[in-house]
Amino acid sequence: MFHRSTLRGVAAAVAVLGLAACADHGGSRPGNPSGTAAERAIDRAAGTNTSGAYPAQSDGTRANPPGTAAERLYDRTTNSNTSGAYPAQTNRPGTAAERALDRAAGTDTSGAYPRQRDCTASNPPGTAVSRALGTTNPNDCR
């Protein structure tokens, strides 16, 4: 029994030492950049800085703004700021679809068009149809 537990201990020690030998020791030695060769290959292919060897490819630099290219494309298409690359687009209330509906229907569902709210000078209570039919209650805005 003692022999079997000793054998397991030795096997575990060999496994741990094997992993330690394969560990990334960083780029502190001359001629050895940061990260493993596989990480550097991924960085070159994907334009990332996972390995630490390509700091110019880090998010938020001039060469690589925040987020992925797909997130930035989505942001430009929907006028949002999911990626963090377009902070000027973050203060607009509602979604792009809600704002499009508001522009088309003359409403303020999104909150982006307060002048189109009911009971304002440019938008009296009710709808154009209800006002034409006389079914709008003029006291709705009081």
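^ that was protein a. below is b, sequence first then the tokens
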Amino acid sequence: MAEAAGFDAARLWRRAGQRDRVTTVAPILPDAARGGVRALLRLEGAVLLAGALVAYDQFGAGWSAFALWFLVPDLSLFGYLAGARSGAAIYNAAHSTLGPAALIALGVLGAQPVVLAGGLIWLAHIGFDRLLGYGLKYGSGFGATHLGQVGARDAW
């Protein structure tokens, strides 16, 4: 009776399946932060970046050294040449706040200004990445992060 009225359920299901394949919205990662939580985590990245920049400026280290070393943690991307799981582990080791926190503590407690400056630069880099939405990676691929899917289809 519904088919007589112009309703074809099989055709509707086929069209729905096609729409799913051509979507412009990034797939939702079940473990990724979404909505207000994701916005808050990105805001934390901005605060982390700003705090590290202010501390670095107050410390009085040269900005040329900052510019030279700022992108060094991204060399961890070469870990993806060994595969997604290895790449994610190496990337996460270089983009966790544990490393720079340890360097900053070592620099302060040991009165080692170069180590302190390195920790602040590293921390600023992590804050910048988090602000842009590049979170810690899952082993399924580079685009799968704790802040959501990264890529051209990312809505925010």
